[in-house]
Write a structure and sequence with these properties.
single chain; 84 residues; mainly alpha; 2 helices
Length: 84
């Protein structure tokens, strides 16, 4: 599990939801269903978008090297563990 993508998912979820809500309002949809649909889509698309952004950040970093054998012994990574 990628800790950077977990943090980025909150930011991307808010950004995607905001863009979709503004798009719905600009198209003339002023109902609760439009807002809830935008929120649901933002929630569903948040983690995949954050994962892609995280991978691009890490591929552009010259000092980051992925570990050769990632340990998958726990559901949550340790605080001092290296990134995957």
């Amino acid at each position: 599990m990628d800790r950077l993508s977990i943090l980025l998912s909150m930011l991307t979820g808010a950004a995607i939801t905001g863009v979709l809500t503004i798009a719905a309002f600009s198209l003339g949809f002023y109902s609760w269903t439009a807002v809830l649909s935008a929120a649901a889509l933002g929630f569903l698309l948040a983690w995949p978008a954050a994962y892609v952004i995280s991978r691009r950040i890490k591929s552009a970093d010259p000092h980051w090297q992925p570990p050769h054998e990632p340990k998958r012994d726990a559901a949550l990574p340790r605080a001092d563990a290296r990134e995957v």
